[in-house]
Amino acid sequence: MDTVSTIEGRAIPLGLKNVDTDVIIPAHWLKTVSREGLGKGAFETIRETPGNPFDVEDFAGAPILIAGDNFGCGSSREHAAWALLDLGIRAVVAPSFSDIFAGNAFKNGILTVELPQDQVDRLLEIAQDHPVTIDLENQTVTTPFQDRFAFEIDPFRKHCLLEGLDEIGLTLESGKAIEKHEEQRALALPWLDAPQRRDAA
Amino acid sequence: MASKPRTLYEKIWDAHVVERRDDGTCILYIDRHLVHEVTSPQAFEALRLAGRKVRRPDLTLAVPDHNLPTTPRIDRQGNRLPIEDPQSAAQLAALEANAPAFGIDYIDAVAPEQGIVHVVGPEQGFSLPGATIVCGDSHTAAHGGIGALAFGIGTSEVEHVLATQTLQLRQSKSMEVRVEGELGPGITPKDLILHIIGVIGTAGGTGHVIEYRGPVFERMSVEGRLTVCNMSIEGGARAGLIAPDDTVFAYLKGRPYAPRGEAWDKAVAWWKGLRTDEDAHFDKSVVIDAAEVEPTVSWGTSPEDVVAVGGVVPAPHSFTDPSKQAAARKSLDYMGLEAGQRIEDIAIENVFIGSCTNSRIEDLRAAAEVLKGRTKAPNVRWAIAVPGSGLVKRQAEEEGLDRIFTDAGFEWREPGCSACLAMNPDKVPPGERCASTSNRNFVGRQGPGSRTHLVSPAMAAAAAVTGRLADVRTLAPCQAEAS
After folding, report:
1. Distance from CA of A35 to the nearest CA of B (A)
2. pLDDT tens across B365-396, in order?
3. Which CATH number fits the domain A6-189, given the four candidates 1.10.645.10, 1.10.630.10, 3.20.19.10, 3.40.50.300?
4. In a mutagenesis test of the A interface, which of B12, B19, B301 is the best target, namely the one with the most A β-carbons within 10 Å?
5. Which terminus has fewer CB within 10 Å in chain B: N or C?
6. How far from each other are the two terminal CA atoms of chain A, in whole angstroms?
7. pLDDT in tens, A123-177
8. What is the nearest CA distance from A77 to chain B, expressed in angstroms?
9. Which of A18, A76, A177 lies closest to B327 in CB terms?
């Protein structure tokens, strides 16, 4: 995974609440066996509407998206994160995120920044004409107008993003603990191991 | 020393913690991993690139469901028919190749056990109480209906589970949804969960695991519990669960993957302890009065946009939150509805009975009871019944339900996810309405421009015979009705 530290540039002021994963990437785009190229399908229905923010030339290649409450609700499709990445989005700012989307974004090095609604509203206004800067190390979002909003982030996720760590590699470092758990589990909950498919009784 | 009282969720969580870091992140052991064709190919490919194996193929089960057409899959000679869409065919072929290559049990597209992954898991006894169950699909929450901690994961997590049989997670908060009293006659588990989502909102359970509690659930069938827990994700909760009891044990006993003999007795003894302790603390608690639950219908494009069938389409200004007002205006525009319009005056052109929410035998029976001796209204252009699995289909056919559906003008299909998300050819045309037993009414969910009204199976059947959203309780049971 690439490291993430500072994300700076234009921010697409989408602003909508409850942006679900079917809106981020409709189901017919999920028939791929690759992670690449999903940007073409990102926000397909919104982009069909004339005057939508994705069409504004200033926002082409913008690395930040600003949205409303409960961003990424709905399906567990990681294609939503892959589509944003392919579109060039490296961070999403919103008052709240669905749990599964936030996890998927993190695994792909997309920063999800939670800020209160009034601060999101302020950023939506500024983003119309000005860039926004997100500093992960210092956990701040700043604007050219002295705005400085602090955000919280899970320390483990922050560490992984800053270092670009491979989560599977990290877990495998705990291989001994996993083996020990499996041994204890085999004694305590033996019916969970090696289920065999047999004809129904 | 008496230990601190714990919730059911905390008990299952604690039993699966491999390692707890200082920052609170845990490595959690996963007991069961269900795999389907849409969210797995990139995970298998990544394993291959990294030279990694599947750590516990014995705890993994693969079955295709999302892409499969629901039209016949074999010809008269018993040969498999090709899948027309080349992308769907490639994705299905990838699973069919990946499962044996990594040593995973695979239920193929024409096996009688094939079905929607969340129907297959409990039906095969692969999903068990007290187990941690994951799948690359958000409706994995369904398996909470048998008392499992079950939740949806993304493809990177699918890869992580395949490689390590664990996930790195932080414990969620606990939330109680307590339903007091009894549901009225004709009110189904689907009505209840739609009502609950209407009360808590689609972000109401975010960051939480819901435990559904109260006498209603104790008397509810396993099928009903699976329906309720299935839609926990529509309430924002990654998982929802109900304490397992004798109803669940009786349902699971003798199922193909379920433990037997001494192992079964040991399992039941442990499962019986899976209850929230008295005085256990929930971070959030919501109380619902069962008597207030009516046959419930969605009017908008978010599952929280629900109303009793006897009600009217709400006015955007009736919401206090300005962003909700704006969302409601957009929803009404998309849905082609006007504020104040009576729900029962909304005509529908399509009916879909199926999905991981409502495609089990009880759902098909409930719909058939309404359809018996009736036919779909002339304005209903397309009505399909899609059983959740080949075994559900067979059972329904043994009970003669298939003929009730076809006599009523429904198409009787092969199992799969179908028009719930329209990845296969089953789609609702642009601008048309569908009374649907599925779980999401998002913009374009059932096909571009489709307009979804979420309902129970009985209500979907009532919509089919009247050609509009209708209160199923006002239809006389099993009575021939000239149309």
Report:
1. 7
2. 999 999 999 999 999 999 999 999 999 999 99
3. 3.20.19.10
4. B19
5. N
6. 49
7. 999 999 999 999 999 999 999 999 999 999 999 999 999 998 889 999 999 999 9
8. 6
9. A18
